[in-house]
Specification:
The protein is mainly α. 77% of the residues lie in helices and 1% in strands. Bound molecules: 4-fluoro-L-phenylalanine (PFF).
């Protein structure tokens, strides 16, 4: 077998993981879920889910990936040969394929809106911008072209390899991303009337909380941390044994959460300052923000920067999703990296084209009142990813042996971890995370 790729530096790994986690989930999904679920109340539930339920799942996926040193499908086969766990491996490859298909469509919108901002196309009032958004996404040609550009760029980085592509480019893109979002957040909180947005973000209103809020928060935590998708397993398989799983995972979760909160601070104060409804759903950043950009001095420049931020955040995540497929094709079918990338491009591209067309009248695939795009968005984050994560945490807690987990968590004894810390993590992995995920999913559905 050809030598496996590896990350070279610790900071490279961390930025690649953060690059995967920080994405459209933080800037596009988190704000609109916040808006529809009562602001601060949603944040509190979300934070709890990230650190108590999801972090142990990240430890589990990390352990599975690094211990096996294989792609997401192969990992389960290697660690539990001759068992039925291979089925979970299939899910770990199928889910990212579906996610990256609708993700690339939104990635395409970010490029489209960057171009629109540069051409000063936003001065038409908020109603006009609503129409502009629905016309843009339902058009049969334009969004497909932008989606293909987005997907092709992501594939080019993946084709360059783990160290020379993924690590190299995310190392440049991630710091730039943080700087840009801080600039936008500062501009937003200094707008007149921004206070109402800040209070929406930080004063909880629990009256809007329902069973669905819990499922939304859980789905968002999975989506945002890139869990249940084979991504962490795949990236972890390229990480050196000496690196700390607890350290890298916690830092990734902290970076991702900080970025989500920064995105909230960048968006909500501006939404309130201009008297726009925060609960309008997926169009929030594509309708509201352009309106705001059209109202403030140098708004166009800020608009280009914002959609560029969105684009960078999206591409580093798409890269991580595509790498899951590429690693799978390479290792299970002996494809070269280039061939694996090409197959992924055509496979994902095809589903993504259907997804984009389902926003207009061209492709009418509807189930439960949702078109293909909404269906993939909803089912992947609220069903497939939690189920994938649940399987990973059950696998780590009940199939792997305790000494194996502890060996990975301490990197073979080189990373110092208190005995009680290991006990607590093991308890969270074995009982707390799986029971909580099952309870929340059943609670929302029954
Ligand atoms: N975490 C990414 C985001 O928040 O946009 C999306 C994502 C990337 C989900 C990779 C799943 C994944 F495996």
């Amino acid at each position: 077998m050809e030598n496996r790729d590896n990350f070279r530096s610790r900071i490279g790994v961390l930025l690649a993981l953060a690059g995967s986690a920080i994405g459209l989930g933080n800037l596009w999904r988190f704000p609109y879920l916040l808006g529809t679920n009562g602001g601060a109340a949603f944040i509190i539930i979300y934070l709890f889910f990230v650190f108590i339920i999801c972090l142990p799942i990240m430890f589990s996926e990390f352990t599975i990936g690094r211990r096996s040193g294989a792609n997401a499908f192969g990992a389960y086969k290697i660690l539990a040969p001759k068992s039925k766990w291979g089925i979970v491996g299939i899910l770990a490859v199928l889910t990212p394929t579906l996610v990256v298909s609708f993700y690339s469509v939104v990635g395409g919108w970010t490029i489209d809106y960057m171009v629109k901002a540069a051409m000063s196309r936003f001065s038409m009032g908020s109603e006009g911008l609503g129409t502009l958004f629905s016309d843009t996404i339902s058009s049969p040609v334009e969004p497909i072209i932008y989606m293909l550009v987005f997907l092709a760029l992501s594939c080019l980085v993946v084709a360059a390899g783990v160290e020379k592509g993924i690590e190299k480019y995310t190392k440049i893109m991630m710091p730039a991303l943080f700087i840009m979002i801080i600039v936008i957040a500062v501009r937003s909180v200094t707008l007149k009337g921004a206070g109402a947005g800040l209070s929406f973000l930080f004063n909880p209103d629990f009256s809007k909380v329902t069973g669905q809020t819990f499922l939304d928060a859980l789905g968002q935590a999975f989506f945002s941390l890139s869990l249940g998708c084979g991504t962490i397993i795949t990236y972890a398989s390229y990480v050196a044994k000496k690196e700390s799983i607890v350290g890298l995972s916690s830092q990734t979760a902290i970076a991702d959460t900080t970025f989500a909160l920064l995105a909230g601070v960048a968006i909500m104060p501006a939404v309130f300052a201009f008297g726009i409804s925060p609960s309008q759903g997926p169009g929030l950043v594509f309708v509201t923000l352009p309106y705001i950009f059209s109202q403030i001095p140098f708004g166009n420049v800020l608009g280009v920067i914002f959609f560029f931020v969105l684009f960078i955040a999206a591409i580093t995540s798409a890269i991580s999703l595509i790498e899951v497929l590429v690693a799978y094709l390479k290792e299970e079918f002996g494809f070269s990296r280039l061939a694996a990338v090409a197959v992924s491009f055509f496979g994902v591209g095809t589903v993504a084209v259907l997804c984009s067309l389902s926003q207009g009248d061209m492709v009418r695939i509807e189930l439960f009142g949702k078109n293909l795009f909404d269906l993939l968005d909803y089912t992947s984050s609220n069903i497939l990813m939690p189920v994938g994560g649940l399987c990973a945490v059950i696998f780590a807690g009940w199939v792997l042996k305790k000494p194996e987990i502890s060996d990975e968590l301490t990197s073979g004894g080189t990373v110092k971890l208190k005995k009680t810390a290991i006990e607590v993590i093991f308890f969270l992995i074995r009982y707390v995370s799986p029971i909580a995920v099952i309870a929340i999913m059943l609670g929302a559905w029954l």
